[in-house]
């Protein structure tokens, strides 16, 4: 019997990556290894609107600006529930978006450029640049 080599077509990550989907920012095992090495339990999310870049600043302590990091037991990657942040930057993507990230040792940040086509107007805040127009299907408030 002749054997045939099975070609594994599964994606293998060799560098830190972030995936944004369903209101969460997920990090792969390589990013998780870096973040675990610095003791991350919570994270600050930083936004550079001019460069269209995100940075994850690991922290061990919870504060008013920290996001909880979830890492399933026995796994190396994890997620950050970041819907409020994604609303703030006006994230618009109908499918998951995978982004290469780099560890900045000097600043202790995991940094990643975000695709501009998935970002809102670039103005600060979720509702920046919008008037007080009514959304379809919603009743107007007031008398």
Q: What does this entry show, briefly?
A:
10% of the residues lie in helices and 30% in strands. It is mainly β.
Please give a structural write-up:
The chain has 143 residues and is mainly beta. Helix content is 10%, strand content 30%. It contains two helices and nine strands; from the N terminus they run ββαββββαβββ. It has helices at residues 29-37, 83-88; strands at residues 17-21, 24-27, 42-48, 53-59, 67-70, 78-81, 97-100, 102-104, 109-113. Strands 7-1-2-6-5-3-4-9-8 form a nine-stranded antiparallel beta sheet. The chain is globular, with a radius of gyration of 19 Å. Mean pLDDT is 84; it is low at 125-143.
- Topology as H/E string? EEHEEEEHEEE
Task: Report the mean per-residue pLDDT as an integer.
Answer: 84
- In terms of DSSP E residues, the strand content is 25-35%
Q: So how many helices?
A: 2
Described by strand count, sense and barrel closure, the largest sheet is: 9 strands, antiparallel
Give the strand tally.
9
Rg: 19 Å
Oligomer: single chain
Summing up helix and strand content along with how strands pair, one would put the structural category as mainly beta
Instruction: Detail the poorly predicted runs.
Output: 125-143
Which of globular, elongated, flat, extended, rod-shaped describes the shape?
globular
Distance between the termini: 81 Å
State the helicity in percent bands.
10-25%
Query: Order of strands across the biggest sheet?
Result: 7-1-2-6-5-3-4-9-8
Present the secondary structure layout.
Layout: E1 17-21, E2 24-27, H1 29-37, E3 42-48, E4 53-59, E5 67-70, E6 78-81, H2 83-88, E7 97-100, E8 102-104, E9 109-113
Antiparallel strand pairs: 1-2, 1-7, 2-6, 3-4, 3-5, 4-9, 5-6, 8-9
């Amino acid at each position: 019997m002749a054997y045939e080599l099975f070609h594994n077509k599964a994606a293998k990550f060799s560098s830190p990556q972030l995936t944004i989907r369903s209101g969460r920012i997920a990090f792969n095992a390589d990013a998780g290894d870096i973040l675990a090495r610095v003791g991350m339990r919570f994270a600050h999310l930083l936004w550079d609107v001019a460069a269209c870049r995100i940075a994850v600043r690991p922290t061990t302590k919870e504060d008013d600006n920290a996001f909880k990091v979830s890492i399933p037991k026995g796994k190396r990657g994890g997620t950050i529930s970041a819907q409020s942040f994604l609303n703030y930057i006006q994230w618009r993507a109908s499918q998951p978006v995978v982004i290469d990230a780099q560890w900045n040792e000097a600043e202790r940040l995991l940094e990643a450029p975000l695709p501009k086509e998935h970002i809102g107007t670039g103005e600060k805040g979720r509702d920046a640049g919008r008037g007080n127009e009514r959304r379809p299907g919603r009743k107007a408030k007031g008398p």
